[in-house]
Design goal:
This protein is α/β, with parallel strands linked by helices and 340 residues long. The chain is built from 16 helices and 10 strands. The strands form 2 sheets. It has a 5-stranded mixed β-sheet. Strands 7-6-8-5-9 form a 5-stranded mixed β-sheet, sandwiched between helices.
Length: 340
């Protein structure tokens, strides 16, 4: 099971070495190409910053693209087609473990728990994790944080992963952005989805949201901003301005009404109805999804490593110390300025 980490690391290293010459690590203009792991209200502070003009206030032009998975987002980052990635920190761990010299580092945390929800094909008012016994749940791509965190929660509930009558069949063979469609078209009883997709599916009568994975898993640095070391060295001020705009988006979420938040997010989710967006907003507020600071703690990082190790996706924790994967210097500098 641990071979996936080495395989991904080697792939990322090859891409980084062969294509880094076209990267934008040395480009000092104010345009930032940002790639996100998926498009979800889970990342509301980012979209508020985009739609309310907070990046423009910092003199930045941010162009956002959706990678459809942390693995693909990391590929974009290392190939030079993206400057900053909003990804699961596990993607950075894999590349650092592979030994790349100009490897990416995490420079700002956004979310502090799993943002996915359990969606069932049948309505359940009193869902219990034991309901998963003998059932199939689609948990996302092997080696990704959604699948690893779900495995952790299932096993913490005293259940066993497997295909036996009293075991939970956790499918990890489905690409992250295909989960909803595969769930609809197969006989899997459960899947995990982010908002607003989960609420949208419920609104259309195709599934029922029955539980929050994040509330069960506890706090973990689930999604963060990362960039190569060379990009941050050459664009330090832009990176700080970027985090400042995102933090401003977070402050807006803390003080604004749900209707005001809906209006701020609507340009990023105009394909979803109002009820699904508002339900999603309330779900993430209720689960305390966002980190209050872009500074990642070492304790939180080590908990993420425990979840990865539990899933069999780490070769050796000693290869990926906090100091090698996370650079809090920009986030610390920003926070010092904000409280001054």
């Amino acid at each position: 099971m641990k071979k996936i980490a080495g395989f991904m690391a080697c792939l990322m290293l090859i891409i980084g070495v062969s294509l880094f010459s076209i990267g934008c690590g040395g480009d000092n203009d104010n345009k930032i190409n940002l790639v996100e792991v998926t498009h979800s209200i889970f990342y509301a502070p980012l979209y508020v910053a985009l739609n309310n003009g907070y990046f423009e206030d910092e003199g930045l032009e941010v162009e956002l693209t959706n990678a459809g998975g942390s693995d693909k987002g990391m590929t974009a980052l290392l190939s030079g087609s993206a400057d900053i990635g909003l990804l699961g920190p596990e993607a950075t761990v894999y590349v650092v473990d592979g030994g790349a010299s100009d490897h990416p580092v995490v420079f700002g945390q956004l979310t502090k728990r799993d943002g996915s929800f359990i969606v069932a094909k049948t309505d359940t008012n009193d869902f219990n994790w034991s309901d998963l016994k003998g059932k199939t749940i689609i948990g996302g791509r092997k080696g990704g944080m959604p699948a690893m965190t779900l495995q952790y929660v299932i096993e913490e509930a005293g259940l066993t992963i497997g295909t036996g009558e009293n075991e939970v069949n956790l499918r990890t063979d489905v690409e992250f952005n295909l989960t909803a469609s595969v769930f609809e078209s197969t006989d899997a009883e459960y899947c995990t989805l982010f908002e607003p997709t989960a609420s949208d599916m419920e609104a259309k009568g195709k599934g029922y949201v029955v539980a929050s994975v994040g509330l069960e898993s506890g706090e973990v640095p689930y999604t963060a901003f990362c960039a190569t070391k060379s990009y941050l060295e050459n664009n330090r001020e832009n990176a700080k301005k970027f985090l400042k705009a995102v933090m401003r988006g977070l402050e807006f979420l803390k003080s604004a009404s749900v209707d005001e938040i809906y209006e701020a997010l609507l340009p990023s989710f105009d394909g979803f109805d109002q009820e699904s967006i508002i339900t999603s907003i309330n779900s993430y507020i209720a689960s305390d999804a966002w980190n209050s600071t872009p500074v990642m703690s070492e304790n939180a990082y080590n908990r993420m490593l425990d979840i990865m190790d539990n899933a069999g996706e780490l070769n050796n924790k000693n290869n990926v110390p906090f100091s090698k994967v996370v650079d809090n210097s920009i986030a610390n500098e920003l926070m010092a300025e904000l409280v001054a």
